[in-house]
Amino acid sequence: QSNRAMEKEVRLEKIASLSTADFFNTTSVNKLTAEQQNDLPVEITGYFNNTKHILLDNQTNKGVVGYRVFQVFTESTTNQATLVNLGWIAGGKLRSELPKLESFNGKQTIQGNLRIMENPIVLSNNNEPMEKAWPLRVQQINLQKLSTITGYKLAPYVLYLSKASTLGYVKNWQPIVMPPEKHRGYAFQWFSLAFAWLSLMIWAAYKNNKKNQSGDVV
Fold first, then answer.
1. Measured between alpha carbons, how far is 208 from 213 in angstroms, rounded to an integer?
2. β-pairing, 81-90 with 154-161?
3. Are the C-beta atoms of residues 172 and 85 closer than 8 Å to each other?
4. Counting CB atoms within 10 angstroms of each CB, which of 6, 97, 124, 154 has the fewest?
5. Are 67 and 55 in contact (CB under 8 A)?
6. Following CA atoms 68, 153, 72, 28 in sequence, which dihedral angle do they give, to the nearest 10 degrees?
7. Are 88 and 66 in contact (CB under 8 A)?
8. Pairing of strands 54-61, 136-138
9. Of 189 and 209, the one with more pLDDT
10. Closest to 159 in 3D by CA, of 50, 59, 47, 42
């Protein structure tokens, strides 16, 4: 937990330093490592695919359950396909009711920050062929599997649309969900438990040793 706290402090410092940086393009970004790419501000121009929406399931906002909406964005100059997180939208009263989604037509210039997706995807069970299941509801984001499903070779990161953008839905994300202070709190709890256990073992050993010594006296 202490190490995680230090890692997140370093990342927060990086994010703060990037807040005033110029926007990168994907050509320069693709020359960097995944660690270097994470959180970079990027501006790209191109077109959204409005026929294949991806809904990340079980996402909440102020206690309301809904989805995060993703769409493929193809750059007009490089043809690179990047998955874009457009924000949160509420779900329907019934599981079968999917939200009404917008279409973003024509050439768009969008800005946002890159995120490296850490967890593998587990697609929601769906007995229908994928080509009949749009919008596609998923449990996690796995860019490799989504590349196969969408027919695009997706970039190895996701663009989180800028909160200042008028496109998309509710942009309530935070780059770091659990702050360093919380990790330190957990670390203190573990250290306290370890110290208490060690103290108890020392006391028990002392009492046992004293008892043995008393038993040796004739």
1. 9
2. parallel
3. no
4. 97
5. yes
6. 100
7. yes
8. parallel
9. 209
10. 42
Length of the chain: 218
DSSP element (H, E) containing 189: helix 180-216
> Which distant-in-sequence residues (6+ apart) come within 8 Å of 75 by Cβ?
26, 44, 45, 46, 81, 82
Angle at 50 between CA 117 and CA 87, to 5 degrees: 45
Distances (CA, A) of 192 to 68, 199, 203, 204: 39, 10, 16, 18
Residues 61-71, mean pLDDT to the nearest whole number: 96
16 alpha-carbon distance from chain centroid: 18
Using a cut of 0.85, tell me whether the model's pTM lies above it: no
CA 174 to chain centre: 9
Neighbours of 173 (CB within 10 A): 16
Report residue 95: phi and psi, to 5°. -60, -30
pLDDT number for residue 216 = 59
DSSP state of 5: H
The contacts of residue 60 (CB under 8 Å, 6+ apart) are 66
Q: What is the pLDDT of residues 104-130, one digit of tens each?
A: 999 999 999 999 987 554 545 544 344
Q: Which residues pair with 158 in a beta bridge?
A: 83, 115
Question: What three-state secondary structure class fits 187?
Answer: helix
Which residue, among 79, 206, 82, has the nearest Cα to 150 in the 3D structure? 82
